[in-house]
Amino acid sequence: MPTDCSGQLTFWDLGRQEVTLDFHGGQIVTETGLLPIRLLDKQLGVLAEIADRLADPRSLKLVTHTREAILTQEVYQILAGYPDGNDAQVLREDPLFQTIVGVPPDGEHDLASGSTLNRFHQAYTRRQAELPLEERPAQREVNAAMTQRLRVLNDYLPELFIRTRRTPPTTITLDIDPTDDPTHGQQVLSFFHGYFDQHQYFPLLVFDGATGFPLAAWLRPGTVHASCGAVETLRSIVRALKAAWPDVIIQVRGDTGLAIPGLYEFCEEEGLKYALGFATNEVLKKRVAQAIIDVETYYRYYRHREPEVQRFEVIEDYQAESWSRPRRIVAKIEINRHGLNCRFVVTNLPGQPGEIYSSHGQE
Q1: Which of 157, 158, 228 is nearest to 193 (CA)?
Q2: Nearest to 351 by CA among 330, 327, 333
Q3: CA distance 146 to 160
Q4: Average pLDDT over residues 270-281
Q5: Among 8, 74, 269, 319, who pairs with 326 as Cys (CB 3.0-4.6 Å)?
Q6: Which residues make Cβ contacts (< 8 Å) with residue 93, sequence separation at least 6?
Q7: SS (H, E, C) the chain
Q8: Is a pLDDT exceeding 80 seen at residue 167?
Q9: Are 157 and 124 in contact, with CB atoms under 8 Å apart?
């Protein structure tokens, strides 16, 4: 049976003062933690400067939403946990996101639609979509436009890092990290990777080791080699850092997938220090065989007193077949209740091997 619902409720038994509860609360938002982030962003001019560098293929006479407005809307949607462009269909009317973008939250000025965001993200215009299929730009041209946008972003990150340092650093450690990113569905560039046993992307990330500041991020197909694009990415970052701070000492560290001759040679040519995980092989096992026996024997007698035993060995003259010259290998031999674990690092860092592991190498 239908009932009539009142828009307010009055309480009569709360003393002499009449109290009325009104259910028309106006515009209410959540996730206001984004506002101080936006304030800092505006003070640093991050998104404004990036937007100014991005090419805009749209017809300027017909533009309603500026590059900065679209980029700001998309970035803060992602920060709020709405990564899909289609989420804009609802969020474009949200007063919080309107405030972040700088649009009056008066209900009369919606933000960009999901289709506008997605076209901007893909560097694609409505004019292109209206062309017959045989006259549309080839997919590789769209991909080239997206890659160029990524290049703009990656060129900007070292600049922002340099600009936001209060004092010039004496040493910078570049942590380069190939990261598996699981995918679900039929995304472009998503492939099955046997080692990770999943369909994935395989992005390449670079961070400042001391602060975690991002210095590069490249999306890569799910089955590329871990080192794909590593030298080119580092070269761009190193060039920017050295231009700002000619005397800075730069160190590179990463895991086993990055241990390729091209990366060693690049670091050596540029005067960079490096410590990279190195895969175990039979030659290295033989070189540390006696050390392994010593550790196992010691552990057998003293494991009740020392539940974990570590030993470090240095091989100064190791040369793989693909190497142009010998390089230094540091071995970490560890044994505990889970068994024996032997790991290797190729490096040109001086000092004691234990220090290399704890301060510069792999844990």
Answers
A1: 228
A2: 330
A3: 21
A4: 94
A5: 319
A6: 107, 110, 111
A7: CCCCCCCEEEECCCCCCCEEEECCCCCCCCCCCHHHHHHHHHHHCHHHHHHHHCCCCCCHHHCCCCHHHHHHHHHHHHHCCCCCHHHHHHHCCCHHHHHHHCCCCCCCCCCCCHHHHHHHHCCCCHHHHHCCHHHCCCHHHHHHHHHHHHHHHHHHHHHHHHHCCCCCCCEEEEEEEECCEECCCCCCCCEEECCCCEEEECCEEEEECCCCCEEEEECCCCCCCCCCCHHHHHHHHHHHHHHHCCCCEEEEEECHHHCCHHHHHHHHHHCCEEEEEECCCHHHHHHCHHHHHHHHHHHHHHCCCCCCEEEEEEEEEECCCCCCCCEEEEEEEEEECCEEEEEEEEECCCCCHHHHHHHHCCC
A8: yes
A9: no
Give the Cα-Cα-Cα angle 254, 199, 114 (nearest 5 degrees): 100
Query: 256 and 354 share a domain?
Result: no
Do 290 and 263 belong together in one domain? no
What is the rounded end-to-end Cα distance, in angstroms, of the chain?
69
**C-alpha span between 27 and 29 (Å, rounded):** 7
For 130, the domain range is 34-137
pLDDT tier, 362 (very low <50, low <70, confident <90, very high otherwise) = very low
Residue 304 sits in the same domain as residue 324: yes
CB 268 within 8 A of CB 325: no
Dist CA 310 CA 289 (whole Å): 15
Q: Are residues 87 and 175 in the same domain?
A: no
